[in-house]
Amino acid sequence: xxxxHQHSAGRGVSGxxxxxxxxxxEAARLEALRGYEVLDTEPEVMFDELAWLAARLCGxxxxxxxxxxxxxxxxxxxxxxxxxxxxxxxxxCVHTLRAGRTLVVPDALEDxxxxxxxxxxxxxxxxxxxxxxxxNPEGFVLxxxxxxxxxxxxxxxxxxxxxEVLARQVMLQLEARRARLTHxxxxxxxxxxxxxxWEWNPQTGRVSCGPRLLDLFGDRPGRSPDGDGWFExxxxxxxxxxxxxxxxxxxxxxxxxxDEYRVQRGDGTWARVLNxxxxxxxxxxxxxxxxxxxxxxxxxxxxxxxxxxxDRMASVGTLVAGVAHELNNPLAYVMANLDYARDELRAxxxxxxxxxxEALDEAREGAERMRxxxxxxxxxxxxxxxxxxxxxxxxxxxxxxxxxxxxxxxxARLVKDYQSLPxxxxxxxxxxxxxxxxxxxxxxxxxxxxxxxNEIRLSTRVDESGRVVIEVRDxxxxxxxxxxxxxxxxFFTTKPLGLGxxxxxxxxxxxxxxxxxxLSFESEVGVGTVFRVVLAAPxxxxxxxxxxxxxxxxxxxxxxxxxxxxxxxxxxxxQRTLGSEHDVTxxxxxxxxxxxxxxxxxxxxxxxxxxxxxxxxxxLHETLVQRMPERAGHMVFVTGGAFTKRARAYLxxxxxxxxxxxxxxxxxxAMLDARLQT
Length: 678
Description:
It is built from 21 helices and 23 strands. By secondary structure, it is an alpha+beta fold.
């Protein structure tokens, strides 16, 4: 009767103790086992076939591929047995782990180690066991390939040798399985990092690379470029520099070489890549291999450009907002004084003043044009403002068209086809940003020099569902069918590298989606493109539009107005313009106005500039809320723009009317009449 097979098969400990492995070595073994990521996985044909072959080789009804962790033995493959696992403390295989060599138990009932084992006395009623250890390259025994029977048996030396050979095959399959998992993981890792691995043999000139790098080049598997072919794909402006640097590193004794350059994809577009390479040399210093990693920087570079543009635009926006604010103050008193002069001249006509009246009208028209330009500048400088309000769509569309006019006028006629629209609840700056992008894109789709033959049409309508529809239609070259599906993808652009980030339209889509609408397009090559913005049907406002109610205000009554503005000429213009209709008391400092109010002087309305040095209009209102709460609602905020975030948030929170500079005299009078009646 054959006892333990004495052929050593790996790391193990001989001796009489047959307890389970313990200590640091067992912890390391368990860590190695977990590294194969095989426990509790589904059956696999390669392992099932090896178990079947072991059973046939040894003439046994049962065969197992058993892996032992800290609490059980789990069967990756099993032949003639339905169990998936058994507790570790009854496992025969633990003894094989401890010995580190093939273990044969001819009759378990005759072996003092197993005669009382539940697998022998109950259930399976095992009598015979032979297990060959599964030893990994680091020398750890992960489990066994074992054969079993319910009657005493013996194996020949050839059968034992064959069992050990099959055990090594099981281990090779486990290694191959781990390698495949590692490859998949590395491939996923490379995809996340946009990295591609390559190798160049300087003797043959052949470049070997993975499928993802071939995808970048647009080549078929097995058609890797050679060294010369690689350099031919580099952008002409970068090629000489890259070749010079690579050749110098190759001829010298450098181990590493790194460069960033542009390379042509298979579809003709350009990618920006970072190539990091290592030169492998033999003992004599001869170059035998170059291995490297190519990282696709295209999206990162585009994002960096976009962030740089955003930073510049933010700076420009801050500058524009400040300039608009500074222009609004003088423009306010220029327009107010022009209105005053025109009204006075009309009230008391004099012979020979017809030319003067005409000059005043032209000056007033010019000032109104300046006011529109300043308003548009303010609109497109408020990119960080997410405030939602009732917006006149055609006004935002007209502002966008005015801002884009320099792009449009040399390429196409601008046609406006507006139907009557309700106001939409949106952010005017964001909506204007979308319209500006669409109009500029439409212009850039048309070559310069044929403006009389091309057209950009801006149209608005309400569809059958009550939704507001805005269309920007051009007669440009159209979008090719093969790229239409990607037009709204982030970073996709058909413009040359460095001239487009591919983020404009995706940002537009995001803005419209967040407003509850949709952005879509239709295009035909050679005919043109139409981009369509559809905004949700606006719900009726909860309260009547203040401006409408002010226009419909009852007859005028004389009131006592307190005006606070740090610009003396604005005060003078308002006193001059409104002085014949109301009593006007002016202050250039909010502190002085507050002191006057606290003396109990009679007043009806307080018109106060928002942004002033020392005490601001907001701080004045906060003081009134504390000291004169019954009068705090009798205040009108006057603003030239350039709000701070705190000021904007405060104005959104309080329910007070707002008067924007420069003033429209008719609207100003209507607002005052309406407020004085309440």
